[in-house]
Amino acid sequence: MKIAVLPGDGIGTEIVAEAVKVLNALDMKFEMETALVGGAAYDAHGHPLPESTLKLAMQSDAVLFGAVGDWKYDTLDRPLRPEQAILGLRKNLGLFANFRPAICYKELVNASSLKPELIAGLDILIIRELTGDIYFGQPRGRRVSPDGAFAGAEEAFDTMRYTRPEVERIARVAFEAARKRSKRVTSVDKANVLETFQFWKDIVAEVHKDYPDIALDHMYVDNAAMQLVKEPKRFDVVVTGNMFGDILSDEASMLTGSIGMLPSASLNASRQGLYEPSHGSAPDISGKGVANPLATILSAAMMLRFSLNQEEAAVRIENAVKKVLAQGLRTGDIYSEGATRVGTREMGEAVVKAL
Ligand code: NAD
Questions:
Q1: What CATH number did the domain enclosing 106 receive?
Q2: Residue 263 CA to ligand 1 centre (angstroms)
Q3: I need a surface site. Which of 127, 135, 139, 342 has the fewest CB within 10 A?
Q4: How many domains does the structure of the chain reveal?
Q5: Which of 220, 239, 261 is the last residue of a domain?
Q6: Looking at ligand 1, which residue's alpha carbon is closest to its atom 25?
Q7: C-alpha–C-alpha distance, residues 63 and 212, integer Å
Q8: Among the three residues 261, 295, 321, which one is the final residue of a domain in this structure?
Q9: Per-residue confidence band for 258, with pLDDT thresholds at 50, 70 and 90
């Protein structure tokens, strides 16, 4: 079981160190190798995803990733910015399915801005397609508008597109995931307006015929955005395209109160994956030892489950996290009165102890 450890920038190094401690405490045989990525790699090698880092990732069963980015890189040319490292890893590893669970732990029910009864027991899984859609469709660019009311004016455009195989494989991933949960899938589209998403909807319905044990419903993205805050527990597995998934998964993550608690996984067809917290590098708290490492620790649990086939170890980590929460330990982002405030390292060590 070979793991590429890519801590990245900002709080990335602090939180990944705690996840590595937790993995080591499992007493299993991992081969872990660390490499630079993001701004740290740019500073050392002039590129956010150096050849050596990419090679390590490609030769590993899984990548444990911290976060990348800092405001100081915002003036760099786009291909050299830290965030490009993630896009490069996704592309080279063929990571097409992004899993973003949003789970509300009962101890943190008051951290949400929604009423406790709406989110207590919440456990939804958003599956976002990662390689297609308007984010990658060509052509795109700026030009002089060739027609319409403002012909001759400057304009910008992007292209929304999906191929049949892309939709089929993400639909299968969603139905398979639902089989291990409550057997319900909601496919989110905008079929009423967009040709691309009528195509999406038709194909998801076709693939569904192979999964008669799973209940499927279709929902427009605007309604899904509303339902997520109105009645989030109506959802179980949600599958959608790249752009809608980007937005809805962030919305869903906030239902639980803290982005510091939310893991994520991006998988390819051979279940090789990149595992990272849903948050960024948090430059505002970097180096202070206060970041919440639990999203990264829970990402390591997802890595054990999905890429390394170690379900039992994954559950051990998840139970250890529940235990430290039940003990009342909280980092600043999830702190509420009466709890014990701890830093990044103390939280990591408490999880190790609970294991
Ligand atoms: P962010 O997620 O880094 O931070 C948003 C807010 O949440 C901040 O106030 C931060 O302190 C807090 N926060 C985030 N993670 C936390 C944790 N584990 N514990 C406690 N508090 C936490 O988003 P941002 O501020 O918009 O972006 C900062 C940098 O991160 C930017 O350069 C951005 O491009 C980058 N970014 C990277 C990724 C990634 O690596 N996958 C994702 C999003 C943003």
A1: 3.40.718.10
A2: 13
A3: 139
A4: 2
A5: 261
A6: 282
A7: 34
A8: 261
A9: confident
Instruction: Answer yes or no: are the C-beta atoms of 239 and 186 closer than 8 Å.
Output: yes
Ligand 1: residue of 253, 281, 286 to mutate (most ligand atoms within 8 A of CB) is 281
Among 197-201, 267-271, 295-299, which is the least confidently predicted range? Answer: 267-271
User: Which residue is it, tokens 């063929």?
Assistant: 94
Which pLDDT band holds residue 345 (cuts at 50, 70, 90)?
very high
As a whole number of angstroms, the distance between CA 265 and CA 242 comes to 14
Whether 222 is a known active-site residue: answer: yes
Res 106: pLDDT: 86
Reading the block at residue 168, the tokens are 């089929």
Q: How far apart are CA 107 and CA 136, in angstroms?
A: 40
If you measure from the C-alpha of residue 259 to the centroid of ligand 1, how many angstroms do you get, rounded to a whole number? 9
Both tokens of 251, joined, read 């919305």
- The two tokens of residue 71 are 């405001």
Mean pLDDT of 56-82: 96
* 250 in active site: yes
Ligand 1: residue whose CA is nearest its atom 26 = 280
Average pLDDT score over residue span 235-249:
96
